[in-house]
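Write out the 3D structure for:
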Amino acid sequence: MPDLKKGEVLAFKTDTVWGFGCLPNDIEAINKIYEIKKRDTKKPLILMSYDIEPLKKYILEIPDYAKELIKNHLPGGLTLIFKKSKMCNNIITSYDTVGIRIPNSIDFFNIAKNVEGNVLATTSCNISSEKPVKNYLEAKEKFSHVATIIKPIEDSENENIPSTVILCEKENYKVLRKGAIEL
């Protein structure tokens, strides 16, 4: 896995849907993701890593109940939204919160383990309002002119079931989107 260059966007397979990603401090690449997707910049990206440790600096705190969710469901198809820290760039999310995720994917693990800081700013690999791509060939066909497509170890088709998204508030959580993990 080569070092990400400034402005470079990756497309990669995860355990839920294919994703786009870049380094979280690369404004040029983040803007490129929004352009590729034709996505409203008010819609946030999420941060993904192979482990919770590299993600901790982007969030203020993890309530005890959320530590249990992390222990029981990550890696996996769960996105947790926390209050963000000052380390989290406002272009990733203009809200005071940020979503984090740890995919259960050897392909993503290998990418995150080998990029600076072990974290990527991510979103699904598609044009906004369209379905995410299902496999490597479709990603290559649609996006190789604008992104570096990472060939997965095994190119089986994703079921395109998105992650479950929950908002982690101080005392409890609220499910914002039902998806791959049932809570």
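The mean pLDDT is 94.
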